[in-house]
Known about the structure:
Elements: H1 2-5, H2 17-49, H3 52-78, H4 83-107, H5 112-117, H6 127-145
Helix pairs in contact: 2-3, 2-4, 3-6, 4-6
Amino acid sequence: MYSRRMTIREGVQDESRFGLVQRATLVFALMATAETCLGVFRILVLSKYLPKDKVERLGVFGAILNVLGISFKFIDYVNPRDRYDLAIVGGVWYALMVTFDATLGRARGLSVQQICDTFNPTKGGYLGLYMSVLFVAPFIALGIKYRS
Length: 148
């Protein structure tokens, strides 16, 4: 399905997986910057007017929309050639975002257990849902962009 529509763009000379990971990392940096800005907005503005659980749910929903929007916009730049490349991109984004979130949580003074709880939906954490969407975001973006 995807291989028929996905070809190497003419302007991209580097066909290596390293180039793919570099481009995925640059897009991740944009995602992380946007997530940080949304998080600051959520803490400074929304938390004054809404209860904590609603702010967290809105934050996850906003983060999912943000990731899907950025994925959709930049999937051509990342230039995956096949489903394997899409899985690599999703894995890179997933690994970098888990590292980013854990580092940011530790910098805010959270314990490792508290950080793990943010990923556990049975303990009120919605970050696991977000990470699942983050992993499949390249597949979703490409599927929406090139659906027939």
